[in-house]
Amino acid sequence: MAGNGIKRRRRRIQLSKLYTLTCAQACFKQDHSQIGGPGYSRVVFCNEPDSPEADSRNYCDNYVRTTKYTLATFLPKSLFEQFRRVANFYFLVTGILSFTALAPYTAASAIVPLLFVIGATMVKEGVEDWRRKKQDIEVNNRKVKVHRGDGNFDSKEWKTLSVGDLVKVEKNEFFPADLVLLSSSYEDAICYVETMNLDGETNLKVKQGLEVTSSLREELNFKGFEAFVKCEDPNANLYSFVGTMELKGAKYPLSPQQLLLRDSKLRNTDFIFGAVIFTGHDTKVIQNSTDPPSKRSMIEKKMDKIIYLMFFMVVAMAFLGSVIFGVTTRNDFKDGVMKRWYLRPDSSSIFFDPKRAPVAAVYHFLTAVMLYSYFIPISLYVSIEIVKVLQSIFINQDIHMYYEEADKPARARTSNLNEELGQVDTILSDKTGTLTCNSMEFIKCSVAGTAYGRGVTEVEMAMGRRKGRPLVLLSNFNDVEYSKESIAEEATVKGFNFRDERIMNGNWVTETHADVIQKFFRLLAVCHTVIPEVDEDTEKISYEAESPDEAAFVIAARELGFEFFNRTQTTISVRELDLVTGKRVERLYKVLNVLEFNSTRKRMSVIVQDEDGKLLLLCKGADNVMFERLSKNGREFEEETRDHVNEYADAGLRTLILAYRELDENEYKVFNERISEAKSSVSADRESLIEEVTEKVEKDLILLGATAVEDKLQNGIIINLETPEIHLLEKTGEKDAIAKASKENVLAQIINGKAQLKYSGGNSDAFALIIDGKSLAYALDDDIKHIFLELAVGCASVICCRSSPKQKALVTRLVKSGNGKTTLAIGDGANDVGMLQEADIGIGISGVEGMQAVMSSDIAIAQFRYLERLLLVHGHWCYRRISTMICYFFYKNITFGFTLFLYEAYTTFSATPAYNDWFLSLYNVFFSSLPVIALGVFDQDVSARFCLKFPLLYQEGVQNVLFSWKRILGWMFNGFYSAVIIFYLCKSSLQTQAFNNEGKTAGREILGSTMYTCIVWVVNLQMALAISYFTLIQHIVIWISILVWYFFIAVYGELPSRISTGAYRVFVEALAPSLSYWVVTLLVAVSTLMPYFIYSAVQMRFFPMYHGMIQWLRYEGQCNDPEYCDMVRQRSIRPTTVGFTARLEAKKRSVRRSEPES
Q1: Binding positions for ATP (predicted)?
Q2: Known catalytic residue: 430?
Q3: 669 annotated as belonging to a binding site for a ligand
Q4: The whole model's pTM is what?
């Protein structure tokens, strides 16, 4: 291997004894009796995928598609998605009606903008789906070796695999389908599997094939191989599999131990051979990949209500105009006198026929509904989608949320919820891997009743800061003052942050209980399932472990002089210091049995034989199961160890108890016979038999001590513990409370907690609630959960300990439905998926627990600390931008649409539009759309630095003050009075005045073009007034939008009159040469914008909103004045009684109360 340039080698082992219990022989269980019945009907002909029997089964192929559309379904499905939106459907109906004689404009002018908007959205959908398509192509075209007959294996694409194919998967390759493991590069058919893509776990799983197929280790062995498998039907359960394999006339049971799942990876094994059982969409991982729930932001839901309100307004105005039109038409021709002679009611069609006035009114209603459709912004949806995509790009490109160490930027996986980030009321967070690094460091230990380790945890440092004095730790020699920085500088070995001169550098040999210390660290070096890797160049050893804890223990033993460096099939080699000679020696321990850790046993043991022939059982486990297994003469250090373990727990450390015992040969012989008999059992109670045997040997232990490892908090996580007046309502996580947990007890504690909150007055104290999983199960019952929610929302912080994934999801659902506010869930593991999908916003941490949480999240970040910038900066900006953008959209459309209504009222509702057809159509598309998009992308009320400096600014989003009905209706009112000012000033200015040198007054074309020019100026200048942060792009789009209007009317007017109709040369010949046109435009624009300008100035000067205060603070140069900044903070929208704010206020009250005493 060295000749091939491979610099690392793995000391491979045959693990038939190492994993005695984990990979024991499969046995027939009760489930196997169901094979052949409902749900267990799958039949697989191994190595015969093309046989007639296999073809008749018609199983799906291995092609996997995750796209939303296909080439055939894209057009119909995409159109259906577009016209599900009420506004788009409305414009479709009006577009169809535009082909009738009822239309007040041409059909082309109505259809073209709709096609543009729908087409742009469909292109966006198509591009996003094409990206998914490219991912599918990459996965489906991966190669794997497939048996082609006569013992030959050739590379073949994944998508061509069939059920029954035999495949060869090599090291670090993904499994292309669900396989039954036949054999591996190990003699006992063991292989290591990484399931990170499935369940988020990074520890390796051990799988083992059947003994009958374990000898098939060469490709030629499969020449003529035939097997017959019957198993369960495709299902989503990742952890169960029931089947039988018939080989050479005998039947063998199949279990999850033989199943290799698609998208898991082969690790630490050169190759495996397997038979394809499930393909494509039948595989368990695809069965689990349900579509994520459809999430819509609160603003988007409210926007739908605004559109319904606008529909109501359109219908109401059309109805009002139709009634007036009907009455006027009926009275239009009496006694031979025609009031509206220009409509020729004496010879008109039904539209103006006085004899059929009711029918004419109905027709007018339909015409008016089409004409007033311009109240609804046709480009609203597509503009918002464009803005949200661009906002997502800015989030993805934010260098301040880029984690350089792992090369992971922030990633907005959906753009639908950008503004929701600015309205989060409640955050529900996982701890391990989310708040912490899930990277364990050995920091302290207790050996023979003596505490070792002078490392300082982050919890201890936080408590030291709270007490207002430096953290000083006493040693036997000198007082040593520690800081986080000095310790970080010393910690150069990953997983080891231990500092104690008493036992480092071999000094442990001088300790009183040196023999116990030797046994303690020897246990750490031997009792594990870690695999060593040796670098051939440097001879340095690294370890690959099933968990970070295991790796930390072995590294600690190595750093303290007990170096585990080699493992074979049945031995472990350790370099350690000999107490007698004082020299480092290599010792060999023969591994006889490994009793694996699981959540039920809560302990792990190995039985080894040392070089002197002694049989030793080495055990480590949780304190609640280890102390009860100690012998009477093995409890010498129990009291001191218990005290140390409690201290370590208070410091936020994870602890394990270490103990051992010696076995005599007869006792071990009996145990080995019984364990072999139990593992070979084919009865249904096989697991209980194994547990019974291990229970008898793991007893009468002698206590050595305890370990303490720290799962460090991620950078930027602030600890603020035990601030004055933070009260813990109930610590239901304590052992006594857990033992007594019952529904009645939990209900009583909740009621007591609510009483404490009520007694405190709701805001005088800050409370914290801690509840464990067992109590939480009762608290989530239907008759208790609402009371529990009331208690929880009244507390500053709530901690749910040892909660299951389902409980996490249920708590999230309870909070989301109970308070009606926006909830955000954040996690990093597969156990957080339910919580992320249940919350309004799911944030996935791309940490070390795999990508399952990230793949199920709405936004992915690399570290928890980036959540602050994501919410306070991007969340606030996106919320403000989208809110202002939507309000402005309705403002500009009401300004435009209401002038149509006023003009029609002025013309006695004759259904004549004030503007040219193409003026109507292009208003939302070209003349007013770009500035609002620029606002949605670039506007900032305050800078990122001030967003972070004044986090209470975020309350604007939580309280939804920028998109309240008051603010929405205020913008609508702005649109209505703007339309009134524009219409009446233009009409009055042009009605009686000579418009040109020839003395002619303005006609409909001149009046309409002048009003249109005023509207374009007003809505674009209104945007300029509304913007808080001007950029060059915003300047350009505002002035370009105005110039485009002049360019359009000039060019459009030069087209033939059959195309330009009433706009033919109207600008060149009538408007541009007329001074009154330019004067009226200036007068109307200033008059219309003046009320808003005055209102904004008064509000900013005398009644500023919170962002206005910060803008004043920055303008006056007082942003660094602590007293002034504190005054601004105190003028927040509402007092907050949760989280950091509550703790801060509690601390201030405590200080104020203590001042008189001093």
Answers
A1: 430-432, 550, 597, 620, 654, 732-733, 802, 808, 831-832
A2: yes
A3: no
A4: 0.75
